[in-house]
Amino acid sequence: MTPDRADCPTCADEAVTARVLALRDGEAVVDVGGLRDRVAVDLVPDAAPGDLLLCHAGIALARVERPAR
After folding, report:
1. What is the pLDDT of residue 31?
2. CB neighbour class for 69 (10 Å; exposed up to 12, middle 13-18, buried from 19)
3. Distance between CA atoms of 60 and 44, rounded to whole angstroms?
4. What is the residue extent of each domain of the chain?
5. How far, rounded to the nearest angstrom, does the alpha carbon of residue 13 sit from its chain's CA centroid?
6. Contact between residue 14 and residue 62 where contact means Cβ atoms under 8 Å apart
7. How many CB atoms lie within 10 A of CB 38?
């Protein structure tokens, strides 16, 4: 698994990394290659702006990177 791409072991779809821009209503607004999207952060409840998350099917699965604060 590389930080910018991974395959889901269940459905073989691609997971992608996304940078958190903001948190709103229990979701993260993320940047994915220049496009904005929203993902649920239930599995990464302490996600914060600037974090890099591994996302699949609209859900943040794990934090890949947290910038120095």
Report:
1. 96
2. exposed
3. 7
4. 5-65
5. 15
6. no
7. 14
pTM of the model: 0.78
The encoded tokens of residue 3 equal: 């930080």
Amino acid symbol at 30: V
40 Ramachandran zone, left/alpha/beta (phi>0; psi -120 to 50): beta
Instruction: Please give the helix or strand (H or E) that residue 32 lies within, else none.
Output: strand 27-32
Which has more pLDDT, 18 or 1? 18
pLDDT digits (tens, 9 = 90+) for 33-65: 899 999 999 999 999 999 999 998 899 999 997
Q: What letter would DSSP give residue 37? A: E
33: tokens are 């290659």
CATH topology of domain 5-65: SH3 type barrels. (2.30.30)
Residue 7's pLDDT is what? 58
